[in-house]
Specification:
Layout lengths: L1 H9 L2 H23 L13 E7 L19 H8 L2 E7 L5 H10 L18 H7 L3 E7 L25 E5 L11 E2 L2 E2 L5 E3 L26 E3 L8 H15 L9 E6 L20 H23 L6 E7 L7 H7 L16 H4 E7 L8 E3 L3 E2 L2 H9 L16 H4 L9 E5 L3 E6 L2 E6 L8 H4 L3 E4 L15 H14 L2
Parallel strand pairs: 1-9, 1-10, 2-12, 2-13, 3-4, 3-9
Antiparallel strand pairs: 2-11, 4-5, 5-6, 7-8, 10-11, 14-15, 15-16, 16-17
Helix pairs in contact: 2-13, 3-7, 6-7
Length: 488
């Protein structure tokens, strides 16, 4: 920090940024390796359990602990935030489901990889922790590919089982994409021998979706489905399985910690709140569904607390990307799902990837604290390595930094830059500046917009309304160069 302050006072701003970028490229990877073996890391018998809860398509402004004006009641998640740390500048590495989850599991920017299916032999958080005697389990939505499915029946290859999870129960992808079925470990529970019509054609009553777009509400695509698969039962099924897993861990010693990745399939479509939660929010079907999800999160946290496991368990809750919430939804319900941010799911605007991110670890993370430093889901791999005091193999997690010091209350910057992929743009953060560059696949969409440099000062303009590219041409130049380096 002393060097940074010296640059700020002694050098012109453009030269300052040039030097800071060079320093960050040279020293941050080395710093990540060093911090992973820091004296603050834990001894083996103190290694915590880890519970990572990933919600699906929830916005930055949905939780009341992030947005007091939210029209959705989330008391259980808010209570989790009060017991731990709330990050205000945390980011998914992609603005849609697949790349976001890929980045979290591998510590790699999704822009480095095409389809973001996890290739055989890729180190993941699960396989790394598995190598260090953790019991690893995943319950929920996978969406990072399988190798061979053979008609979605019997044994399948690839998926969570290949990526380091000792146990898996879940669905192959989003709940609006067929086939609709459950997988347990490496086998399909029941093959999809029947077909189902498009979601809106078969729902009525409390699932009334008038006023929503064709990808909102009680929406799913037509296709194959297992005979006993019910969309509305997926949320409670995941909660039940997670509670069963936690119950099995009660007799474990600290030499037998667990890592549970609980990936709920909501509030992604279809929005299917049970009758108990109908009209429990002031944000329509979406808000009712998220209110129910909050109750399920509460059941998980209560199980953890009642079991005696909470004291030595790191709990993280976040969302994979922004919400599907259009301007007309804001007008209708007076609810801003993305809070003060511009954009939504799919977008490289902040609303597409800046996420609620809550971490609780009693006695280790200061309760009721807030961290304003920039982090990314990719940082979880190296951070977990630091927590268990185990170095990562060379070449793994190239885009992962150790944010353990932030969790412990240090508010010094760890990350100087960040790459995020949206539907039309890649974005690069350089400190508080954000540069957007059109994706090659969209070069024909809006030629005028494609040729224009976009740069925003998020410190002064969190809503990304004022393009300052003309005022900082050197930063634009640096950002273009750095973005290409970080996508290789």
């Amino acid at each position: 920090m002393f060097i940074m302050q010296l640059f700020k006072h002694a050098l012109p701003v453009n030269l300052t940024w040039t030097l800071l970028v060079i320093i960050s490229l040279i020293f941050l990877p080395l710093a990540g390796e060093t911090l992973a073996q820091s004296p603050k890391s834990l001894k083996r018998n103190d290694r915590p359990n880890m519970l990572f809860i990933m919600l699906d398509d929830m916005g930055y402004g949905d939780l009341q602990c992030y947005n007091p004006q939210s029209k959705i009641s989330t008391p259980h998640i808010d209570r989790l935030a009060k017991g731990g740390m709330r990050f205000t500048d945390a980011h998914a590495p992609g603005a849609v489901c697949v790349p976001s989850r890929y980045g979290f599991l591998t510590g790699r920017y999704p822009s480095r990889q095409g389809k973001n299916h996890i290739a055989p032999g890729t180190l993941t958080i699960a396989s790394f922790l598995q190598q260090h005697s953790y019991r690893t389990a995943m319950i929920g939505k996978w969406h990072n590919g399988f190798e061979q499915v053979d008609g979605w029946q019997g044994k399948i290859s690839g998926g969570p089982y290949r990526c380091g999870f000792d146990y898996f129960f879940g669905i192959p992808h989003s709940l609006d994409i067929p086939p609709y079925l459950y997988i347990e470990n490496d086998r399909v529970v029941e093959p999809p021998t029947q077909t189902i019509e498009r979601g809106k054609q078969v729902t009525a009553g409390i699932y009334e979706t008038d006023g929503w777009t064709n990808i909102q509400g009680a929406f799913w695509r037509p296709g194959k489905i297992a005979p006993n698969f019910k969309h509305a039962q997926v949320l409670p099924q995941f909660t039940e399985r997670a509670i069963e897993f936690l119950a099995e861990q009660q007799g474990a010693t600290r030499d037998e910690p667990f890592f549970l990745y609980l990936a709920y399939a909501g509030p992604h479509t279809p929005w299917l709140p049970s009758p108990t939660y109908h009209n429990k929010s002031d944000a329509g079907l979406y808000g009712d569904f998220l209110t129910e999800i909050d109750q399920h999160v509460g059941k998980i946290i209560s199980t953890l607390d009642d079991s005696g496991l909470a004291e030595n368990t790191l709990v993280v809750l976040t969302s994979d990307n922004g919400p599907v919430w259009y301007p007309e939804n804001i007008s209708q319900y007076e609810h801003r799902s993305a809070g003060p941010l511009r954009g939504m799911k799919f977008d490289a605007w902040e609303g597409g990837h800046r996420m609620p991110f809550i971490a609780r670890w009693p006695s280790r993370i200061p309760a009721g604290s807030v961290c304003t430093q920039m982090i990314c889901f990719t940082d979880m791999l190296r951070t977990m390595a630091a927590i268990i005091d185990a170095p990562l193999p060379p070449g793994t997690g190239p885009d992962s930094l150790n944010v353990l010091p932030l969790l412990q209350g240090n508010n010094e910057p760890v990350r100087q830059h960040l790459v995020v992929s949206g539907r039309r743009f890649h974005s690069l953060r350089l400190g508080h500046f954000k540069y957007l560059e059109p994706r090659a696949a969209n070069q024909n969409q809006d030629a005028r917009q494609q040729q224009r440099s976009l740069l925003f000062d998020l410190q002064a303009d969190i809503a990304e309304t004022n393009n300052v590219a003309d005022h900082y041409p050197e930063i634009v130049k640096q950002a273009k160069s750095l973005l290409r380096q970080l996508q290789r």
